[in-house]
Amino acid sequence: MDETNFSNDRVASDLLDRMFVERWSSKAFTDDQLSEQQIAVLFEAAHWAPSSSNRQPWLFVYATEGLDRARFNSVLNEGNALWATKAAMLVLVFARVVDEEGNDIRTAHFDTGAAWMSLALQANRMGLNTRAMGGIDLDAAYTVAGVPPEEFQTICAIAVGLPGTLDDIDPNIAKGNIANDRNPITEIAFYGSYLK
Ligand SMILES: Cc1cc2nc3c(=O)[nH]c(=O)nc-3n(C[C@H](O)[C@H](O)[C@H](O)COP(=O)(O)O)c2cc1C
Question: How far is the CA of 53 from the centre of ligand 1 (A)?
Fold first, then answer.
């Protein structure tokens, strides 16, 4: 298998679809806003994700500008607030963990992860950048987004917007704003048994 160098300095086999390697989580965003159509397509991508018994336990509550956005920004921790407040859109991500009969949805987080990845890949295809953030006030997110904690768990926030340049971020952040590599595939995929 030959290897290909991608625009974000990642190296991958040339058989792999480019979308997996071209997506990366930059912290740099421009001031541009997203159109309603762009936003709609992102959530359309998310809603096609597979889920256990097709329960679709993901929930996205989002804000772009104005007072709603100021409320959403308030859940970010200090480090994330340094760059994520500039992104055109902040999305709070929740997973429905209890179904209508009161049963636990065991795979809710897994399913919601699939939906986030769908959104992220679609965003990349549209020339947008996404970065998920676990560094948020998980309890405040329920109030900010009007989501009942008895039924949902806060998972993370996602910053979405047009990719900026290093000039769009604080110089201290810019230094570390590079695409991350990955562990070798031999450490994550095993034939037959993980234990030797
Ligand atoms: C659930 C989740 C939580 C994350 N939390 C943060 C965060 O709080 N702050 C941050 O800067 N990046 C955060 N990230 C981004 C990861 O650091 C990033 O995805 C990882 O380093 C891999 O890099 P890549 O997305 O560019 O491939 C988070 C990513 C995920 C999926």
Answer: 28
